[in-house]
Each structure stands twice: as C-alpha cells, then as structure tokens.
C-alpha cells in the first residue's frame, strides 16, 4: 500500500479529491509502442515491394489511428491510394507478431497505476487500437491486473474523439463525469473527454504529432504521471 495520503497529492488538489474512475489511452500514454508498430509498418512495406521507413520516421506518423498511419506509410512509399486496404491488411498481419517488440511503460506509469489500485480507484483502458492487440500487450507488461475493463477501436460504433467510449465506461461503472478522469496524449483523447464533460490529464511525451495539447483545456499537462502523486 502507498504511504502517500491521497488528499495531499497534486492530483487531489486539481480534482478536488480522488476520482472514482480513471480512463487511460494506451499508446503514447501508458506505453511506448512505436518500436513494434514501426517494425510492422516496415515489414508491410517490404511485403508490398517498397523500402522500409524506419522507426524514427514512423514515430512521427503515430497518433492518428491505424488507417492514417498506414496512409502515411503508403504516401511515403509512393504507392497508389487504391493499395491502402491491402497495406492495412499487411500491417495488421505483421503487427500481430511485433506488438510486443521493445514495448515499454513510460516513466511514472507503474507508480500511478499502483497508487490508484491501492486507493480503490477503478481503472480502464479506452484506446483506438484494435482490441485484438490490447490484452496481450497489457499482460506482457505485467499491468493487466490493474484494469477492470478495456475498450478498443473496434468495440463500439465510433472511436475517439467521439465520446462514446468514455460515456460507455461511465455508464458501466455508474460514475458521473465529474467523478472520473481521462488520461491521454492526443487531441483525440482530450476532445473525447471534453465532449463527455470528463476532466482530462494530458501527457506531453506521447504521440501528439506536434499538436499543442494546452488548447484543449486539460486540467493538467505534464511529462510524468507520477508528478500527480507528489505532495501538494
């Protein structure tokens, strides 16, 4: 159990107490998944007769969802727009084998998950990543036990920035929006939170693709979630 008093933390001061429900984005918020994504992109490009892009370039493409990612990859390769669907299929095939490649938690994530668990706060994942890849990633990182539920990009009719995922979790856990919080790294996360009237904590280290997250009015914007657990 954490010895830190929850009422004396930066987080509690920001929110007026601990939330009942924390909803997390996955890629770019909890985990750095770019190495595996980049490897799958490069293998897909090579399968389709193009040169690999490399991890550094692919990192600049991540954050807008799978379709946009692969669209940028085929644009880079000079491939025809009509090849998008086959490129997505190839990417998903390869990503099934590379999703855990050099996968790592961002600094402060492990401490934050443990803190909320210690204080009885429900935690869930709401990600635009296809759900088929999510459970194994969480298990591989040893954090699956922290999450009471998961929603992926193909679970509901719409994805973030639509608020449906967040509203669904609020309903499942019978929590009011002002008693929950969203944690994310991109405009998709913050726009969804704003639409659901849920406070949002934004991280600056993720895959925002150069977007200024402060324009979406997060209640906090920082570079390490563990900063929220410090004494106020």
UniProtKB/TrEMBL annotation:
The protein's Enzyme Commission number: 3.1.3.18
Gene Ontology molecular function: phosphoglycolate phosphatase activity
Catalyzed reactions: 2-phosphoglycolate + H2O = glycolate + phosphate
Transmembrane segments annotated in the record for this chain: none
Xref: InterPro entries: HAD-like_hydrolase_sf, HAD-like_sf, HAD_2, HAD_sf, PGP-like_dom2
Top-level lineage group: Bacteria
Signal peptide (from-to): none
Protein name according to UniProt: phosphoglycolate phosphatase
